[in-house]
Amino acid sequence: MSYLEKFVYAVAENHYKDLQRACIRPRCMFDLIHEEVERGLIQATLEYTGFNLTSCADVLGMSITTLRSKLKKYNIFVLKV
């Protein structure tokens, strides 16, 4: 099994367990996988760029406004020094 297949399986399994524990509405698996990959990519790029938001947005090919929106969406906090 490839790393990607293991990742998808793990996300699906966690989602299924969440559904069993609480009465939450099932979500589209594509959306779940997309969000997990996007969150990880943003976090890795932030680390790579030394947590510089402008550089991170440039590397990811998005505007700083879009990056800030995604940071808020995924509850990723970057301390300003």
Provide key terms for this protein:
single chain, 81 residues, mainly alpha, Arc Repressor Mutant, subunit A, 4 helices, 0% strand
Sequence-ordered SSE layout with sheet pairings:
Elements: H1 3-21, H2 29-48, H3 53-60, H4 64-73
Helix pairs in contact: 2-3, 3-4
What is the residue-averaged pLDDT? 87
Percentage of residues in strands:
under 5%
Major sheet summary line: none
Q: Provide the domain count.
A: 1
Helix fraction bin: over 70%
Structural class estimated from helices and strands: mainly alpha
Write the CATH fold name: Arc Repressor Mutant, subunit A
Word description of this protein:
This protein is mostly helical and 81 residues long. The protein has four helices and no strands. Helix 2 (29-48) crosses helix 3 and helix 3 (53-60) packs across helix 4. It is elongated and about 40 Å long. The chain starts with a helix and ends in an 8-residue tail after the last helix. The mean pLDDT is 87.
Give me a quick take on this structure:
The chain has 81 residues and is mainly alpha-helical. Helices cover 70% and strands 0% of the residues. It has a single domain, classed as Homeodomain-like (Arc Repressor Mutant, subunit A), CATH 1.10.10.60.
